[in-house]
Amino acid sequence: MTVAWILREKGRNVVSALPSASVNDIVTMLAKNRIGAVVIADEQRQVQGIISERDIVRILATQGTAALHEPVREHMTRPVVTCTEQHSIDWLMEEMTARRFRHIPVAEQGRLAGIVSIGDVVKHRIARAESEAAQMRQYFVAG
Ligand code: AMP
């Protein structure tokens, strides 16, 4: 199974912001959209960085609320680990586990084309386990 399968299910909409957006703008976007990370991309949608709720907590703890007025380009994480539609979901899980993050944007020639979160991966794994269990039940009933 590949990333394309997840994107077909959830769509390609990604909440993103320009590097010039303020940290406060990002806080508003996270809250309003009920998400855990915002991808930072330029006007051509080339991925520049990522900022998650964990970064916001760290920024506030270490720098205080004055940082809310600073541009996100000064606080975002880069480089960003991205994937393509052809990457396997198993690869995504390994990468998220090894690197301890929960979001991987999808990029085609560097341009933002979707995002996969750990929630999407877990949802896919549950759907697969349920479908395999249903197949097994069918197999035993038919046999
Ligand atoms: P998360 O678990 O996604 O909230 O992110 C934890 C940390 O990893 C934060 O510092 C994020 O900015 C960073 N991060 C999240 N996703 C990625 C990614 N795909 N590539 C690089 N860093 C990331």
Characteristic terms for this protein:
three-stranded mixed beta sheet, alpha+beta, 143 residues, binds adenosine monophosphate, elongated, 5 helices
| Fraction of residues in H or I helices | 40-55%
Q: Can you give the mean pLDDT?
A: 94
How far apart lie the N and C ends? Answer: 28 Å
Determine the strand fraction and express it as a percent band: 15-25%
The run of helices and strands is: HEHEEHHEEH
What does this structure look like?
The protein has 143 residues and is of the alpha+beta class. Helix content is 46%, strand content 18%. It has 5 helices and 5 strands; from the N terminus they run αβαββααββα. β2 and β3 form a beta hairpin. The protein starts with a helix and ends with a helix.
Chart the SSEs and their pairings.
Layout: H1 3-10, E1 16-17, H2 23-33, E2 37-41, E3 47-52, H3 53-63, H4 89-99, E4 103-108, E5 111-117, H5 118-142
Parallel strand pairs: 1-2
Antiparallel strand pairs: 2-3, 4-5
Bound molecules: adenosine monophosphate.
Give a summary of the structure in a few sentences:
The protein is α+β, with helices and mostly antiparallel strands.
